[in-house]
Design brief:
There is one protein chain. Helix content is 76%, strand content 0%. By secondary structure, the chain is mostly helical. The protein has 2 domains: 1-42; 44-88.
Length: 88
């Protein structure tokens, strides 16, 4: 099968456009990641302490929910609680 020169040029052009688009997207992604990490590394001591307090509170909440589920299972209450906002 014989291809015309115009078809080959179009194929190469599309290949270069795709290459440039992928390269630009990669560069944008790397810049975004670099900015994120720079912001994280430049956190003040107060920000770091706040992050640690929030992390500790989240861990404690997760542990309490697990403990509540274990108590329900041991007490023979097979009904799963979807929300702890209201007690039935």
């Amino acid at each position: 099968m014989h291809h015309s020169a115009g078809y080959i040029m179009d194929e190469r052009f599309i290949g270069w456009v795709i290459f440039v688009l992928v390269a630009v997207l990669l560069i944008i992604g790397l810049v975004a990641i670099q900015r994120f990490w720079t912001a994280r590394l430049n956190m003040s001591d107060e920000d770091i302490a706040f992050e640690k307090r929030i992390s500790s509170l989240n861990e404690g909440q997760a542990n309490r929910r697990r403990d509540d589920e274990i108590v329900r299972l041991l007490s023979g209450d097979d009904e799963r609680v979807v929300s702890d906002d209201k007690e039935n």
